[in-house]
Design a protein that fits this description.
This is TIGR02646 family protein. InterPro entries: HNH78-like (IPR013467). By secondary structure, the protein is mainly alpha-helical. It folds into two domains: about 140 residues, no CATH class; about 70 residues, no CATH class. Strands 1-2 form a two-stranded antiparallel ribbon. A two-stranded antiparallel sheet has the order 3-4. A hairpin with a 5-residue loop joins strand 3 and strand 4. About 30% of the residues are buried.
């Protein structure tokens, strides 16, 4: 997961919310499209949960996720800080192949995508097999049972990134030799993975960042 920094909410959402009573389902198609574009922009076109690339021009290309579900939190259905962009999550497929918002439904999460206290990125672990986990037992349960983020195709995608970055970094480290130059290289690579290209992050970007941060810590000791 990647922490999300919210940008200014769309004017169409503000105007719609001002006309009470107002409901999410009452948003016009134009307003919903503006909302989707806003969410894609602030998330760098990756899913708020699995970090898979959200396609721009295929249907269904994304879902507007209510972090706190509409059924139990009607007062938050138009609150911008409660809205995120999620991938289709295997909608229409068997339950075991569903992920993210599609798998979550009305279930609750405790991991927060926005706050720095704590930053969600610090609560997540990855390994070379592409598995995502947390030292927090409840968050670990949610990653697996609520979001199904260890579904095989997601693990395979993360594993590919982890191993390719590992291979490249290890080869470059042997060439560099000097510890301080290695640190500089790791930092530069980390920044590349945290930088948008054409307003997009690379999918599964945080698994690369996680590996590079581990290398940085190892070489600072």
């Amino acid at each position: 997961m990647k922490q999300i920094i919210k940008i200014q909410e769309p004017n169409s959402l503000i105007k719609h919310r001002a006309n009470q009573p107002a409901f999410y389902d009452g948003l016009s198609q134009e307003a919903k499209e503006e909302l989707r574009k806003n969410l894609l922009t602030e998330q760098g076109h990756i899913c708020c949960y699995c970090m898979k690339r959200i396609p721009e021009n295929t249907s269904p290309y994304m879902k507007v996720e209510h972090y706190k579900c509409q059924d139990y939190n009607a007062d938050l259905q138009l609150t911008y800080s409660n809205l995120f962009g999620a991938c289709a999550g295997g909608e229409g497929k068997p339950k075991k192949l569903q992920t993210c918002d599609t798998q979550k439904g009305n279930q609750s999460l405790t991991i927060n995508l926005l706050t720095n206290a704590p930053n969600c990125e610090t609560q997540i672990r990855y390994n070379a097999n592409g598995e995502i986990s947390s030292d927090n037992d409840e968050i670990d349960r949610q990653l697996n049972e609520v979001l199904n983020l260890n579904m095989q195709t997601l693990k395979d995608g993360r594993k590919e990134i982890y191993l390719s970055v590992q291979k490249e970094v290890e080869a470059k480290s042997k060439q560099i030799g000097n510890k301080q130059l290695k640190l500089k290289y790791f930092q530069q690579e980390k920044e590349k993975w945290l930088t948008k290209k054409d307003n997009k992050y690379r999918q599964f970007c945080m698994i690369a960042v996680y590996y590079l941060e581990k290398k940085i810590r190892q070489n600072q000791n």
